[in-house]
Amino acid sequence: MAQVYNPNIVGYINQPIYAGNNFLANQLDNGTGNTLSNLFQAGIPQGATFTKWSSSQLQFLPFSTYDQSTGWSINYDLTYGQGGLLHTPSTFTNTFVGSVWPGFNGQIPFNNPPLVSGNGVFLLSCYIPIANATFFDVVGRAPNNGDYVKTFNALTQLETITTYNGNTDTWNHGVPLLAVGQSAFFGLGVGLAPEPASTALVGVGILVLAGLRRQRRK
Predict the structure, then answer these.
(1) What are the CB-based long-range contacts (under 8 Å, 24+) for 167-174?
(2) What is the pLDDT at residue 178?
(3) If 12 and its partner were Cys, which of 64, 66, 97, 200 is the partner (CB 3.0–4.6 Å)?
């Protein structure tokens, strides 16, 4: 759904950001530091919030809130391969500008740098802005039995958890594919999938994470 323009490996992405939750990726290096204040420069609604995921703590980091007078309360970075959760009270379009990961040789699927080591739950994105990025494109290897991906549709505000069965070489809820500018949860070798975060708004645009429970995969 995003528009991608990539002449000579440099360009921009017009990324629609919908009212509610958006699991985002930044797939271009703007050359000035890929922090929130540089990535989101115009049109951000008052009270929008952003956070990243801690795979070691299995929880989101403190929320950064946007104020039109003072900017972001925490100036997080967001770069190749990472994911972040942005909540906005209204829809807008953000333009990401910069260069594609310099290690990309034009071949799909490509061998990206290792994003993670060991097992865990990670919020990841594809290094490069390609539509329908596969598990291999993101993680850099084929899925193992029991690996899962939790994607979130920002337009419908609905999520899907799909788990890989190595015995049948199938995904129980469809092959996971990421759009340009999208990140998703990847559960690697953990045997448990996180349930949806329960959220509520307090005031204007303040996202409160009420909890992250875990349930056993079927």
Answers:
(1) 172/218
(2) 97
(3) 97
Q: Which of 10, 187, 216 is nearest to 98 (CA)?
A: 10
* Residue range 172-210, pLDDT digits in tens: 999 999 999 999 999 999 865 544 443 333 322 322 232
H/E segment holding residue 122: strand 120-125
Q: Could you tell me how many helices (H) and strands (E) the chain has, helices first?
A: 2, 19
CA distance 69 to 86: 19
E strand or H helix at 60, and its extent?
strand 59-60
CB-based contacts of 167: which residues, under 8 Å, 6+ apart? 145
Tokens representing residue 198 in the block = 């329960």
Give the tokens for residue 151.
Answer: 């994607």
DSSP string, 147-203: -EEEEEETTTTEEEEEEEETTTTEETT----B-TTBEEEEEES-SEEEPPPEEEE-S
Beta-bridge partner residues of 22: 86
Label residue 165 by pLDDT band (50, 70, 90): very high
pTM of the model: 0.82
Contact 121, 197 (CB under 8 A): no
Q: What does the alpha-carbon distance between residue 33 and residue 39 come to, in Å, rounded to a whole number?
A: 9
First vs last Cα of the chain: how many Å apart?
32
As a whole number, mean pLDDT of residues 30-41 equals 92
What are the φ/ψ torsions at residue 83 (nearest 5 degrees)?
-130, 160
